[in-house]
Amino acid sequence: MSESVADTVELDAEGLRSRTREFLASNDPATTDRGEFLRARFDAGLAWVHYPEGLGGLGAPRALQPVVDAELEAAGAPDNEPSRIGIGLGMAAPTILAFGTEEQKQGFLRPLWTGEEVWCQLFSEPGAGSDLASVGTRAERKGDGWRVTGQKVWTSSAHNARWAILLARTDPDAPKHKGMSYFVCDMTDPGVEVRPLRQITGEAEFNEVFLSDAWIPDSNRLGEVGEGWRVAQTTLMNERVAIGGRPMPREGGMSGVVADTWRKRPEGADAATYDRLMALWVEAEALRLAGKRLGQQLAAGSPGPEGSAMKLGFARLSQELSGLELELLGQEGLRYDDWSLRRPETVNFTGRTAGYRYLRAKGNSIEGGTSEVLRNIIAERVLGLPAEARADKDVPWKDLPR
């Protein structure tokens, strides 16, 4: 059997299952230090199997990752706390893989995946949230690096982060989509200041970040100078999948929380409320199945604009379901557990109390791209509608150009 054929056989489901069991035999999760175990898993190519060898993967089909995960979970192996390092896993890593140099990939991906280094995202600004192409943060070339000055806002995990993915303007005279570059910023640099932003929930999971002549070596640039918008699109597509396209079991997420509340309080419910719940339950199930299909598309290639539809649906359903939960709970739903300022390491959309879930869901239609922007993306890039016709409210939909 040739080496290429042997590799193909080895990287099928059974081959990966066997390889995972061999790894576990040499790295018993019951007796191996957690950090040591995670680093060994990365080095064995069992972190994200579709990544190249030497970068946490084996070059195997992405669809086979659940085979590895199931074996490790059955053995009681520790995970890398994906809820704590989601920005690194879901946004920074695929961008570094697509645009990073070999040195950048080797230096950043391993500690990112093991959770030794938390990442955040320095994109949005007070004057450039939905219109990301209008970022005003400036990066000026100074010798072998860049001096960066500006303000970023709504930055999740900045208070815990070691690194950040940063979009900055390097050519103020170029058209706004052309004059940006993409960097990896060291959050420990003296020119970086992080301040908490208290939210409606009482927490400060978001932050504002001030960059005052912060230093970034040119070796921490991803992509070419002026190519920042193209690089950022890879990040944004993966971000929307990460937020709205997570694999869920039936009645996972808010639909399960509200259904459970209904079952515990049948005496306070009427037929009209039941109809509302069932309609939302069906929509949640349809979105879950669409997410499974999106996962299959990801296994075959890269995320596309379909991820925007998943994120849009997730935001709307979370808000409607959390509102219905408060109605089902009546006066009890008006209680709130704790308004004290906290700066959490993780965010759980279904955690804490009903009041928290209702308030936290308001952010779902803002973070990861506002629902208004996502509707434009879906209209233009999925449905193929021309922007000028779509924006003209006087044109009947049936008369729009095909």
From TrEMBL:
Cofactors named for this entry: FAD
Any one annotated GO CC term: plasma membrane
Ranges for domain Acyl-CoA dehydrogenase/oxidase N-terminal: 35-116
Keywords: FAD, Flavoprotein, Oxidoreductase
SUPFAM superfamilies on file: Acyl-CoA dehydrogenase C-terminal domain-like, Acyl-CoA dehydrogenase NM domain-like
Database matches in PANTHER family: ACYL-COA DEHYDROGENASE (PTHR43292), ACYL-COA DEHYDROGENASE FADE34 (PTHR43292:SF4)
Entry protein name: Acyl-CoA dehydrogenase
Protein species of origin: Haloechinothrix alba
